[in-house]
Amino acid sequence: MVVDVAVRNGTGERIDLGSVVVTGRDAEGRELARVFDAEPPPVLGLHGTLLAGRKAVGGYGFDLPPGSAREVDVEVGIGPDGRPSAFWSGRIP
């Protein structure tokens, strides 16, 4: 499973995209293993620096074990400075 994550920098400062942490969990709450060689295109995640007012998109691959429920939760956190995480929950086709 590949999830595209978009980050928009609404601050007046640069953001280090290396501080972005993306976590996937299955319907039972178990953390999903990251996959780095999934298709489509490389799932390299976000990296580098994002300028103020700009947007970046990165792919994150996760291993959803066979037979597991197709419901997943994805959490996206940016840095340790108290910004709230963003969450998405849904069914994978």
Describe this entry's structure for a reader.
The protein is mainly beta and 93 residues long. The chain has one domain (2-79). Helix content is 0%, strand content 47%. It has no helices and 8 strands. It has strands at 2-8, 15-16, 20-26, 33-35, 49-50, 55-63, 71-78, 86-91. The radius of gyration is 14 Å and the shape is elongated. The relative contact order is 0.34.
Summary of the model, kept short:
Helix content is 0%, strand content 47%.
Individual helix count: 0
Instruction: Please mark out the parts with pLDDT under 50 across 5 or more consecutive residues, or reply none.
Output: none
Mean pLDDT: 89
Number of domains: 1
* Strand fraction: over 45%
Radius of gyration from the alpha-carbon trace, in angstroms: 14 Å
Give the biggest beta sheet: 3 strands, antiparallel
Give the helix level as a range of percent.
under 10%
| Assembly status | single chain
| End-to-end C-alpha gap | 10 Å
Features:
93 residues; mainly beta; 3-stranded antiparallel beta sheet; 0% helix
Question: What is the topological layout?
Answer:
Elements: E1 2-8, E2 15-16, E3 20-26, E4 33-35, E5 49-50, E6 55-63, E7 71-78, E8 86-91
Antiparallel strand pairs: 1-6, 2-5, 3-7, 4-6, 7-8
Organism: Streptomyces sp. R44
Protein name: DUF4352 domain-containing protein
